[in-house]
Amino acid sequence: MDNGGPYVLDIHRIMEILPHRYPFLLVDRILSLDEKRVVGLKNVTINEPFFQGHFPANPIMPGVLLIEAMAQVGGCLAVQHVEDPSKIWMYFLGIDKARFRRPVRPGDQVIFELELISFRRRICTMSGKALVDGDRVCEAELMAAIVDREA
Could you tell me if residue 1 is inside a domain? Predict the structure, then answer.
């Protein structure tokens, strides 16, 4: 797919895949994507709404939002394994082995790398990590359920 940039999915394509919208869409681009692995990025700016309260004198991206961004990148991988992504919802089932190594601050570019561990009976498990300037800032194992949308 050639969409005019050094990435696989731009924000417009991501918005076709994920139901999230501002201020909760936390992925800007997907850099690479295959059946087992995805790499995405989030540009963190001082304009993020969560920095107003976390923390005004020392802005740090909340760890739970790093995990959410990781899950959104993983969602772009998981939807490849369903027949019609427009007919499903993806819900978090679990977060294991989450570790936060250092704060993410305005100006950082976070690279998320996720690998599919398993996809059985509509349950998806992935292992992920988040990096800033090549340094690991967060890691976790994520589990999600694929659920049919009701008409």
Answer: no
Query: Can you give the CATH number for the domain in which 46 is found?
Result: 3.10.129.10
pLDDT in tens, 65-91: 999 999 999 999 999 999 888 899 999
21 part of a folded domain: yes
- Residue 5 belongs to a domain: no
If one counts every other C-beta atom within 10 angstroms of the C-beta of residue 75, the result is: 24
Only one residue has tokens 């991501």, namely 14
- By annotation, the residues acting in catalysis are 54
Task: Count structural domains, the chain.
Answer: 1
Q: What domain range includes position 30? A: 11-148
pLDDT, tens digit (0-9, with 9 covering 90-100), for 84-136: 888 999 999 999 999 999 999 999 999 999 999 999 999 999 999 999 999 99
Angle at 21 between CA 145 and CA 70, to 5 degrees: 50
Contacts of 21 (CB under 8 A, 6+ apart): 15
SS3 (DSSP) at 79: helix
The answer to whether the peptide bond before residue 106 is cis (omega within 30 degrees of 0) is no
Give the integer Cα–Cα distance in Å for 38 and 72: 11
Whether pTM > 0.70 for this model: the answer is yes
